[in-house]
Amino acid sequence: MPQPHSRSRPAWSHRSLEIDKIRTWTVPGALGFGDPAYLGDRYESIALYGGKASDSQISPVAEGTMSPDSNTTNNPNIALTTVTYANGASYAHLGALMKIWQVDSDSLKWNVSGGEKYRIQIWAHQATVIIGDCDTGVSDRILDDGRAISDHINECAATARNHGKFVSCVTRFTKDSLRAGMITAQEESAIDRCASQALALRTKSSTLISSQRGLADE
Questions:
Q1: Nearest by Cα to 212 from 36, 38, 45, 1
Q2: pLDDT at residue 88 above 90?
Q3: Where among 91, 126, 161 does a domain terminate?
Q4: pLDDT: is 131 or 28 the higher one?
Q5: Domain termination residue (choose one: 126, 146, 163)
């Protein structure tokens, strides 16, 4: 994901300070599809990075892993909640309403120096697409059409009357996506292979989420 850089200058120059809590926000929904049912359906883990503005690299100060069908992490000091407003509206983007998620990282005990500029970022590991019990190894990222790869595959699963129709729907999607430059030939092959091997179609929450090893920039 990462969120745009946030810079802050702790007050009281030359004093050593301890930051206990940082609040950030993210919008994981996709235009044209909407919000994931759970934040864990979109991300495998989430982390808050922080460091001096002059540092070439910054390190995690809080991180936690997530699971499908969940809006929590394994870190009790990270709280994930949806933002609501007086009129009940969510984040408005080009006429679509999508949820804003508030990420509270608590009990940080992050020591900083007064008078220094610091920057923070929120990063998330995206899940990989799994069809049945077959892990494609393909990052479940948002494509140029505003929908995640798993959204398209779930649509095929929801509308297909049998396995053959499901495979045809998936291969049509991957072929179109390859032609549009949204996926690679290797990713097309991996998705098609898993679709053909799937003996049962399950729901997104129990099927299409898995751990991704690389850090995903959304």
A1: 45
A2: no
A3: 126
A4: 131
A5: 126
